[in-house]
Amino acid sequence: MSNPINILEQYWNHTSFRPYQEEIIQSVLDNNDTFALLPTGGGKSICFQIPALIKDGICIVISPLIALMKDQVNTLKRKGIKAMAITSGIKYNELDAMLDNCIYGNYKFLYLSPERLQQDIVKHRIQQMNVNLIAVDEAHCISQWGNDFRPAYKNITLLRQLQPSVNVIALTATAKPKVIEETINALDFISPKVFKASFVRPNIAYQVIHSEDKIYDLEQQLKKYPGASIIYVRSRKMSVDIHNTLERKGFSSTFFHGGIPTKDKQDRLYQWMNNQKEIMVATTAFGMGIDKSDVKTVIHINLPESLESYYQEAGRAGRNNEDAFAILLTNASDEQVLKNQFINSLPSIDDIKLVYRKLCNYFQISYGEGELTTHRFNFSEFCKAYDFKSAKTFNTLKLLDRNSIIKLSQEFNYKTKLQFIVSNPAMFSYLETHKQYNTIVKTILRTYGGIFEHQLAINLILIADKAATNEKEVIAVLQKLQKDGIVDFLFSNTDSEVIFLQPREDDKTIHRIVNVVEQQQDLKRFQVNSVLEYIKNDSICKSRQLLHYFGEESDKKCGRCTVCRSDNISKENIDFNTIKQQVIRALEKQPLSSRQLVEQLPVEKTKLLKIIAVLLEHDVITTTPANTYKIK
């Protein structure tokens, strides 16, 4: 079973590799330091998992993404492969036992965040492990010019000191040549083997549609390209709203965001993966580690924050190599919204110093103290206490997290929990005399099975929504039920936790990261401006624009994007007067909107709007109070 293809067939049920996978795996098995750039859908994880299974010992995987670590560990476990992830919130004695299992328990994979390499116990135990490979996922994070640079990634070189004879594989989906070079140098590669797959996705048509009514245009695109779809949105509320709108219009959809209960996430993912629901409306975190090959369309309602993230998200379409569509809907207000969210909300150095100082005060941490202390944290209360604006404050905390000053965990370790501690008949007897609690109690019973037998984590917002009330009312009812001895109710009003990774030194702490912060912010401005250039540039093929951004040049047009399609229409030399007459004949029958004209006539929207403008200018047609056009 030492042959890679046999391992692939046994554990993944595939009989052939994707491009570059076999060569990368062989390079790793030959003990080479290896860099692998495989764009989204290229199957990066197999490139380190298969050689690690062939070799004797354990593979250490460094990843910054807790959700992805957990997902990969669960996937490996389902295949019967022993794997573990050491994430935040683990007590010292648990950590001690887990690391022992890695030495003596025949585990094949240990997933770690780069911050864990700062802990003495972790470093000491890694020295005792039989490590067969070091895999660095999201390797671009080690470069100061990489998307989402994390200084903690510099700690990875410690592994090379702890296990000097073990080779390293670095993997990423998006990296420019400068980032690749810096990553290879930072990881101290010796005679590296570099594999770079092309960023060309010839089966994906990249389309930018200028839309004054995104919901209408969204509906038209879904009708035009039926099949499995992902609609990316910026907020949790928008994911729910658009899902509800699509359901009302007869589409089969569901929604996904970080705030829904785990079981609901699993159910919705299962429905979508198995085509029981055709459309997934999701926030941008959705999709990592999910390999659904038949996604026909990926639609962005909001502008992405970078072309790196856009390419990754768009690349979830068409993994079966059939025709697919990546559609970005944009209007005149999007530019300012994007700048407000990602540029204007960037904190200054003074902002960072202030928020850090107030955070220390909020938890009453004395100067020189606080290192590795953990605190339950209510973000809204913190902003309210110091009159901070939430967007800029959140960006500041994330920046402090990225630069290893704090660890901001939104894993919701502290959950609101509930258990009914009386019998079912006793509870219904109680409701006979307290009918005002009927709706909320029955909603909970229908939502959470086993709540009489076990203490379960509950979602107060979900209960409030289902019971058509508000969260405050649900809490009040549960507190009354607890007082009356009906339930055991553990209420948590925190939404995250903060771990201080360094002792408090106020401005000195921030001075150490000033240069890195300024560089990160320059990169963010560049990324946002690149997105705006991409949506505005209607003269160069969209596929070529993306390739150029990632340092890959091509003279070949894709022939399928909005720019190429527009060029094709002009080349067809459709007679302007013919279309003009078609518009006039249609309006002679009845007043019509531009939307209705697009639906009726065989002409591109942009060309039609130009014809309408000419007809208005020459007083051939006029507008009506109902925003339609009619013959004058």
Provide a short characterization of the protein structure.
The chain is an alpha/beta fold and 632 residues long. It has a seven-stranded parallel sheet, sandwiched between helices. The chain has a six-stranded parallel sheet with strand order 8-13-12-9-11-10, sandwiched between helices.
What does this structure look like?
The structure is a single chain. The chain has 632 residues and is an alpha/beta fold. The protein has five domains: 4-196, Rossmann fold; 204-331 and 537-563, P-loop containing nucleotide triphosphate hydrolases (Rossmann fold, 3-Layer(aba) Sandwich), CATH 3.40.50.300; 340-413 and 495-525, Winged helix-like DNA-binding domain superfamily/Winged helix DNA-binding domain (Arc Repressor Mutant, subunit A, Orthogonal Bundle), CATH 1.10.10.10; 417-490; 574-631, Arc Repressor Mutant, subunit A (Orthogonal Bundle). 46% of the residues lie in helices and 15% in strands. Helix 25 packs across helix 27 (605-617). The chain is globular, with a radius of gyration of 28 Å.
